Amino acid sequence: MDILITTHTEFGYVHSDRIIPDKTAIDGVRKGVPNLIKIADKYSAKITFAVMPEVVQYFPKDVDHEIGLHIHAGWEKFQYGNFSCYIGDMYLREHTSHRGTSTVLRDYSYKEQFEMIRTGKDYLEEALDVRPISFVSGRWSINNDTVKALIKSGFKYECSATAHSKPCHHDWSKLPRICMPYQPSVEDYQLKGNLPLLEVPISQMFPRGNVNPENIPIYGISWLKACFLEYYNQDAPLFHMCLHSPCMTDPYFVSKFDELLNFISKHKKIHFIFSSEISDYENFVPKNNIFPYLVRINSKILKLGFNAIKLKVLGSRE
Ligand SMILES: [Zn+2]
Fold first, then answer.
1. Residue 65's closest CA among 35, 30, 40?
2. DSSP per position, 212-266
3. I want to staple 236 with a disulfide (CB 3.0 to 4.6 A). Which of 149, 208, 231, 259 is the partner?
């Protein structure tokens, strides 16, 4: 089984087990990236860094891992508990002509998206001496125009699909929970077609949720291990994890991610790969198998389940 780790490379710090994407917290990149590389090297794991243009000057030089592009459109203030921070990319703000504030990429026209992607790509090429061909969108938001703009800009891999989900800022609801890479259709990026781009969905836990170490405080590490086993036991060709670089500045997340990679690397026929090494895995029919989860139910899952039932009961009374 191939193992892919995509990392949204951006500023921020961890507070109460949660990432606060503060633009002044440059250690989210300056320390988060080398810390992640240190763990990855321990297990000969490969990391695909999706780098925001605004963090480029803090990204370490001569990194032996893949570098892709991460775009956060617009400029808007968000509240995180007692903290407020801006979402957006300062470099793109200063070097593109669009002045929209929406942080949702699909809200922009083809022309505007193309300009952001092209500007970001050119900057990465010039400053880091790489040719990025992998892409991750901020807030997981793309549409048919994004796909068109990526192909026109020479990208080959798109890694923003949080299969099975549809909040207000993205739509991946047509993808089944367990979904392998596919070439999107020109009419609908969520359907299979023959466009020259590979959509690489992130592995999803049961019943939902990205396989991301940042989810460990919510679901418990045993739930992420169960998801790995659900894929592994049915010979799924790919297991795709994601994370944000600032979580690697926090000792709790560092030790948990180390534990997860240690668990995964003990299995046979595991190959860590970059997104640029992915092929179109044919003839795999995914099956849901909740058995690995049943034997790994933990106190966090029980608490989540209890709260969901409580909400349902309270909701039905109203
Ligand atoms: Zn991001």
1. 40
2. -GGGHHHH-HHHHHHHHHHHHHTT-SEEEEEEEGGGGGSHHHHHHHHHHHHHHHT
3. 231
Gap from CA of 287 to ligand 1 centroid (Å):
30
CA of 10 to the centre of ligand 1 (A): 6
Return the CATH superfamily for domain 2-317. Glycoside hydrolase/deacetylase (3.20.20.370)
Cα separation, 94 vs 232, whole angstroms: 45
Distance 42 CA to ligand 1 centre (A): 26
Q: Give me the long-range contacts of 158-161 (CB less than 8 A, separation at least 24).
A: 158/134, 158/184, 158/197, 158/198, 158/199, 158/200, 159/4, 159/6, 159/48, 159/50, 159/68, 159/134, 159/135, 159/200, 159/202, 159/240, 159/242, 159/275, 160/135, 160/136, 161/199, 161/200, 161/201, 161/202
What count of other Cβ atoms lies within 10 Å of the Cβ of residue 264? 21
Q: How far is the CA of 243 from the centre of ligand 1 (A)?
A: 10
User: Do 270 and 264 form a contact (C-beta atoms < 8 A)?
Assistant: yes
pLDDT band at residue 317 under the 50/70/90 scheme: very low
Coil, strand, or helix at residue 68? strand
- β-strand 271-273 against 2-9: which pairing, if any? parallel
State the DSSP string of 118-139.
Answer: HHHHHHHHHHH-----EEEEGG
Per residue in 209-268, pLDDT tens? 999 999 999 999 999 999 999 999 999 999 999 999 999 999 999 999 999 999 999 999
Question: In the chain, where are the structural domains located?
Answer: 2-317
Provide the token pair at 195. 């466009």
Distance 292 CA to ligand 1 centre (A): 31
Give the bridge partners for 199, in sequence order.
Answer: 158, 182
Measure 310 CA to ligand 1 centroid, in angstroms: 33
Distance 7 CA to ligand 1 centre (A): 9
From 297, 276, 289, select the one nearest 234 (Cα to Cα): 289
